Amino acid sequence: MNKPEKAAREPLFHIAKRNGIAWWKAWIIRGVAIIASLIVCALIIVLLTKQNPLEVYGAMIKGSFGSQRKFWALLQNLAMLLCISLAVTPAFKMKFWNLGAEGQVLFGGLCSMVLMFEIGDRLPNAVLILAMLIASILGGVLWALIPAVFKAKWNTNESLFTLMMNYVAIQLVSFAIMVWVPSGSSVMGVVNASTKAGWLPDLFGKKYLINILIVAILTVVMFVYLRFSKHGYELAVVGESENTARYIGINVKKVIIRTMILSGAVCGLAGFLLVSGTNHTISKDLAGGNGFTAIMVSWLAKFNPLLMVITSFLIVFLQRGAGEIATNFNLNTSIADILTGIIIFFIIGCEFFINYQIKSTKSGKEGK
Amino acid sequence: MKKFSKILAIFLALALVLGFAACGGKGEPTDTPTAAPADETTAADANAAYANIKIGLICLHDENSTYDNNFIKAFKEVQAELGLADSQVMIKTNIAEDDACYTAAAELAEEGCNIIFADSFGHETYILQAAKEFTDVQFCHATGTHAHTENVPNFHNAFASIYEGRFLAGVAAGMKLNEMIDKGDITAEQAKIGYVGAFPYAEVKSGYTSFFLGARYICPSATMEVTFTNSWFDIALEREAALKLINDGCVLISQHADSEGAPKACEEKGVPDVSYNIDTASIAPNTALISSRINWAPYYKLAIDAVVKGEAIPADWTGTIATGSVELLKLNETVAAEGTQAKLDEIMNRFETGDLHVFDTATFTVKGETLTTYLADVDDDGTFTGETEAVADGYFHESEFRSAPYFDIDIDGITILG
């Protein structure tokens, strides 16, 4: 503002790509972004709801940490979102736009439910659960493999293909429920409530502990696979440049198909955990949109499974906080969604400032 | 870079200070609503019995769904009437019909709710699970089917004889059809109604059949086409369904699906519309005819009073016109045919005296024959076979053996599309 006449002649700032940034600087920018987002949210809270923003933030924290049950629910939701995020990560790292996680989870879950509902009373529980696990994984693999093969053989567009596979899975689930529930209510309800056949058991009396442990192990395994294995290296190269991959002798088709098998298998596992370890029912909302949220989790963490623990925590924390705010302050959940949107916008937006810097034109000339 | 960081830091520091100043400044008016509950508490002193209770409500969607809004609105009315402070009322919206429902119910119980209501059919098994765990909390599930057989003392179902409300709405529709015929807009044979249903489920079938019987009671040549969206709430699908029915020659539309998609489509096309659970006169002033609604307030009050007095809540409760549970929303005089209100009053009286029955077997046929016997699937035991004789004394006894509807017969005169 000191030299308006100069600014009129040439722009005050220009944008330049950074050549890398110290990790602690990046985290300072992220921290500043979060604080800035909270300030904007505070203004919105005050303007729209006339509530005290600090109380609202308090409620948000309470939504995740307010009681033992809330904390376990947080861990469970986090585990499910993380599991699906882990599933989509190898595919996205390979730049295979797998928008079909929702359907892969759903079809995997459906495979579990078929066994649980049809032969739940005829097998010993351990055998049944194992069979369900295998069926779910195979189901997820099948749902991912179909678009992968088409992509590898005929170079079809995988985004559209995987997206459409979601609708096929939704219709199949609706059809199955119609067959199983002839009353037409479209509601399965809890299956095998009395026998608990096909239900993952509680571990140390904790309902979701098995889910959480399985996903925790999977996170580490996926990290090692992507970082240290030959497979992980190959899919990263395919993602960067298919031509380079071909040049150095990587069989691109094989890598695409192999990676999608992995992606589908983990989605199938998520379907199994949701049916057998969580809901004990199936509906077309089984994945609950997590198949898409997972993409954001994965990208935000730059495909690093360990960082994904943090990003999925963030998303789930915001979701649970949103519900808590709505209940405590008698608000529509939309306001909570608006706040969540603002926070995520700032977090994604700050990546711009990590990758680029804004230089003042003057200092640029001075060579600083 | 360094310079930019500094600028950024200064800007953010300023924003922070201003932000908190803004919070502080506006913090004062925030206190006024917090102070208000104190006043409410004084009001509550009048009925001090309610001062120590806490009530919870679990909803599948939020206020944007006419179905859930109907529950939430009545809940807030009861809150005001009983003088409950905001801290005594907890509403959880957008709770899916899965484990999240159990978690929500358990959280409400742990946060001190004495009585918890849930509004969606698919919530039932999860509410039941919570009821078995929290035995000192009362759980009231609307539209459910299990309470009369489960024998869990703190688990209850409720519904209303909304088929009577539907019949009345049908009467208003029949009057309108007759007016259209008399004016020469349509011939008697063209008096075809279109109905947007959610799922081919007893609750929906009972609803559209009673609506149709009401219309045909007035306009004998009426027929009806039904199409299902296979979703309880889908604005686009319901709109499309309504447009399809209108293109098909339907001259009046009604619905059992929870969005405003169909009423808005009708307003565009100028086709009279009978809605459910909401007053659509504001969004469709020229076509909205009437709407029937379940008023949940009487049930909330009955159940809350029972908790306060330490009495038992009925395991399965059916609200009626007499209890105030079945309501007709205001008739839109600009759309309705002349004399409609008088006719509605007359028929409402006949329902109350028991002189008229909606499912009178003399008024409809099934595959050309009069219905003399029907085993209804009243006990929801997972077998999906009927076990209760529902036809007696010349009519089908709906909502008498359990509150949730179980009339699921396809009668002549109604065509199901697709």
Structure description:
The complex is a heterodimer of chains A (368) and B (418). Chain A has 368 residues and is mainly α. Chain A folds into two domains: 1-51 and 333-368, no CATH class; 67-328, ABC transporter involved in vitamin B12 uptake, BtuC (Orthogonal Bundle). In chain A, 74% of the residues lie in helices and 3% in strands. Chain A has helices at 4-9, 23-49, 53-65, 68-93, 101-118, 125-154, 158-180, 209-228, 230-240, 242-247, 252-279, 290-300, 305-328, 333-355, 361-365, and strands at 13-17, 356-360. Chain A has a two-stranded antiparallel ribbon. The model of chain A is unreliable at 364-368 (pLDDT under 50). In chain B, helix 3 packs parallel to helix 4 (124-133) and helix 6 packs across helix 7 (202-218). With 418 residues, chain B is of the alpha/beta class. Chain B has helices spanning 2-46, 66-82, 99-110, 124-133, 147-150, 162-183, 202-218, 235-247, 261-269, 297-309, 340-353; strands at residues 55-58, 89-92, 115-118, 138-142, 155-160, 192-197, 223-228, 252-256, 273-276, 288-294, 316-319, 326-328, 375-376, 388-389, 391-392, 395-396, 414-416. Chain B is globular. Chain B contains eleven helices and 17 strands. At the A-B interface, helix 2, helix 4, helix 13 and strand 2 of A face helix 1, strand 2, helix 3, helix 4 and helix 7 of B.
Biggest interface reads:
A-B, 49 and 52 residues
Strand order of the largest sheet of chain B: 12-10-9-8-6-7-17
Question: How many distinct domains of chain A?
Answer: 2
Mean pLDDT across all amino acids of chain A = 87
The helix/strand order of chain B is HEHEHEHEHEHEHEHEHEEHEEHEEEEE
What is the CA–CA distance across the termini of chain A?
21 Å
User: What percent of residues of chain A are in strands?
Assistant: under 5%
- CA radius of gyration of chain A is 24 Å
Strand order of the largest sheet of chain A: 1-2
Under CATH, the homologous superfamily of one domain in chain B reads Response regulator
| Percentage of residues assigned to helices of chain B | 40-55%
Strand-residue fraction of chain B?
15-25%
The major β-sheet of chain A equals: 2 strands, antiparallel
Overall spatial form of chain A: globular
Overall morphology of chain B: globular
Q: Return the CATH topology of one domain in chain B.
A: Rossmann fold
Number of beta-strand segments of chain A? 2
Category by helix and strand content of chain A: mainly alpha
* CATH fold assignment of the largest domain in chain A: ABC transporter involved in vitamin B12 uptake, BtuC
Stretches with pLDDT under 50, minimum 5 residues of chain B: 1-44
**Residue runs with pLDDT of under 50 for 5 or more positions of chain A:** 364-368
